[in-house]
Specification:
The complex is a heterodimer of chains A (118) and B (114). By secondary structure, chain A is mostly beta strands. Chain A contains no helices and twelve strands. In chain A, 32% of the residues are buried. Helices cover 0% and strands 54% of the residues of chain B. Chain B has no helices and eleven strands. In chain B, β7 (65-71) and β8 (74-79) form a beta hairpin. Chain B starts with a strand and ends with a strand. Classes of the chains: A mainly beta (118), B mainly beta (114). Chain A binds chain B through residues 33, 35, 37, 43-47, 50, 52, 91, 95, 97, 99, 101-106, 108-111, and chain B through 31, 33, 35, 42-45, 48, 50, 55-56, 89, 91, 93, 95-108, 110.
């Protein structure tokens, strides 16, 4: 069975602090994909990043960085120098490769609410 | 930027009424998903289409929910009869049929059943 665990329910930081959001996953697939989505207070879900199971290279995009470690089944997300606009719920998600490798359903974690205080 | 369009954005109705939610996927996307978000269950998949054919609707209560794609530009999710426990935000997402291209979500329909 596939499962995504985000153990941190809520995190509160002060602006300019760095913050790491944890994500641990379970899957029996050898090929799978991991995602992060952001849900700001307005409610929409915004795609942030996708990684495949064969690419463990860390990725950096501006103040965002992602650390993928297959050995610990983790895909953690770090925001450097956090800003108030980063306040949102962040979801980690997992998909496998059923249906001939087509886009597959997402298994979401329960989300982490990040509050960045000014 | 192309977006997934969902209507209505908000819906309040009484128990027992039929509810229809609509979704226009991004042009060129041939996979469409319906998710439901509640405080208790989080985000869960209800139904999944590829090239308009349903692939997985195991997450959907079959007795009252139905999902269809009458054409490539329209997906619908119906609830009949609606119940208070159906109150949630319903998201539609679309994607390309390639090795797990990201799904792009609409803004959701916030449904309240009184």
């Amino acid at each position: 069975a596939q499962k995504v665990t985000q153990a941190q329910t809520e995190i509160s930081v002060v602006e300019k602090e760095d913050v790491t959001l944890d994500c641990v996953y379970e899957t029996r697939d050898t090929t799978y994909y991991l995602f992060w989505y952001k849900q700001p207070p307005s409610g929409e879900l915004v795609f942030l990043i996708r990684r495949n199971s064969f690419d463990e290279q860390n990725e950096i995009s501006g103040r965002y960085s992602w650390n993928f470690q297959k050995s610990t089944s983790s895909f953690n997300f770090t925001i450097t120098a956090s800003q108030v606009v980063d306040s949102a719920v962040y979801f980690c998600a997992l998909s496998g490769t059923n249906y001939g490798g087509a886009t597959n359903k997402l298994i979401f974690g329960t989300g982490t609410l990040l509050a960045v205080q000014p | 930027d192309a977006r997934v369009t969902q209507t209505p954005r908000h819906k309040v109705t009484e128990m027992g009424q039929e509810v229809t939610m609509r979704c226009q996927p991004i042009l060129g996307h041939n996979t469409v998903f319906w998710y439901r978000q509640t405080m208790m269950q989080g985000l869960e998949l209800l139904a999944y289409f590829r090239n308009r054919a349903p692939l997985d609707d195991s997450g959907m209560p079959k007795d009252r929910f139905s999902a269809e794609m009458p054409d490539a530009t329209l997906a619908t999710l119906k609830i009949q009869p609606s119940e208070p426990r159906d109150s949630a935000v319903y998201f539609c997402a679309s994607g390309k049929d390639r090795a797990n291209q990201p799904q792009h979500f609409g803004d959701g329909t916030r449904l309240s059943i009184l």
